[in-house]
Amino acid sequence: MTIDSYPLCWPHGRKRTGKWYQEGAKFDTSFARARDSIIREVALLKDTHVKWLREGDVIISTNIALRRDGYPLANQRQPEDTGVAVYFTYNGKQQCFACDRWKKIEDNMQAIAKTIEALRGISRWGTGDMLAAAFTGFVALPAPDAKRGWREVLGADLGDDLATVRAKYRDLASRYHPDRNAHADAPKRMAEINRAWDEAQMELGT
């Protein structure tokens, strides 16, 4: 599934809030602060710095036109659809946080930022299995028959360099090569792994 920052790319299968059921929120925030809070919270969750996030590491998808860096531009009027969907990869899985409960787009962004902040608390004070369980509901589901992205196939994070991805590819290839794995699905899985590795090399450079 191709994910666009503009217009809104709502996650497949995620229920929408009807216009008549949207509420006015009490967040004390501006559009720019809410947008930047999402970026900061994702960076903190991934244990990195905002300035080290690369373009595409965090996709904030809305019906707001974009800045040159691909993030929503402030000081625009509210769109008809104020939904927000935030996509990023965490521990090799693409996550999606989507919210359209509130009438203003900045409030939906702030709600997502606060949700990620809460999950960081689980990461800090809970156990690994608690965090994994908490993230289960946020895994982005592909559209029916959608081809999995190479990062998902290889278990790669957005910040991984080519050498790291190569190591993950070799590990998977050694496990699923038909000569070593007698499972009936091994050839199909190996073809998917090879296709993902080809795409990784094209994107990250050989």
The 3D shape can be described as elongated
Per DSSP, the total helix count is: 6
* Rg measurement, Å: 19 Å
**Whole-number total of structural domains:** 2
Percent in strands: 5-15%
Overall helicity: 40-55%
Largest sheet: 3 strands, antiparallel
Instruction: Report the uncertain regions.
Output: none
Distance between the termini: 25 Å
By DSSP, the count of extended strands is: 3
**Class computed from helices, strands and strand pairing:** mainly alpha
Biggest sheet: strands side by side, in what order? 1-2-3
Give the overall average pLDDT: 86
One letter per element, helices H and strands E, the order comes to HEEEHHHHH
Give the helix/strand layout.
Blueprint lengths: L30 H15 L13 E3 L22 E7 L2 E7 L5 H21 L2 H8 L14 H5 L7 H15 L9 H19 L2
Antiparallel strand pairs: 1-2, 2-3
Helix pairs in contact: 1-2, 5-6
